[in-house]
Amino acid sequence: MTNIGIFDSGLGGVAVLNELAKKNKANYFYLGDNLRVPYGNRSKTEITSFATDIVNYLESYDIDYYIIACNTISVTCKDYLREKFKKEFITIADVAIEAASGFEGDYLTLATKATIDSHYYKKALEARKDCKVYESKAIDLVNLIESGILEGATLNDSLDEYLSIANEKKILNIILACTHYPIIKDRIKERLNYEANIIDPALYLAEKIVTEDAQNRVNIFMTKKSDETRDLIDKIMDVDYKLSFIGGL
């Protein structure tokens, strides 16, 4: 069996895990650090330390390769993790850029503060093609989603703020540059006053990964026990899984 490690700052990466497990059978070991979420407002030093904790935990499962399902980790410390653990780390951010490159027109990167401050998407896409990449720091979205607020006035107010530049300029492509955001993709579409291409990198990642295993074994580890987390995972996952709450790393 292929042992694939997947990790994120919280439960957002569960959506990535779900897409992967639907298309590619393997032993999946997912760790979501919902005890310390969000990562997007933290320093690079903290993010690197937390990511190292996660991989150290997952290493006990004889992981063949890792998928960094967190854009914030992807753009801050992927090179450090590759060097430290001497394994392959596939990042959701690089897959997103590859996917987005196939669309014409300008882009809005909707992401956490850390991802936007790195300008990773902007620099990569503008270097590849003739386009303009706008950026929006969606500072509150991760906390709202982790708290189970997936609709209603509070979420709509935040989305209206973060999507205001898209609605003003009618930006053709919107990149969901945080794995939490596809969970509210329908709400995002509703708050746009025009039709845009919503780019969900998880869908492209599921096409990119190929395994030859005969069955799925999906293990989900979360660092904080909560009913909201359990309920959201149930809503997201379309395949059988085992959920464990492991406490702090």
Automatic annotation (TrEMBL):
GO terms for molecular function: glutamate racemase activity. This is Glutamate racemase. InterPro entries: Asp/Glu/hydantoin_racemase, Asp/Glu_race, Asp/Glu_racemase_AS_2, Glu_race. It is an enzyme of class 5 (isomerase). The gene is murI. The keyword Cell wall biogenesis/degradation applies. It comes from the Bacteria. The keyword Cell wall biogenesis/degradation applies. Its EC number is 5.1.1.3.
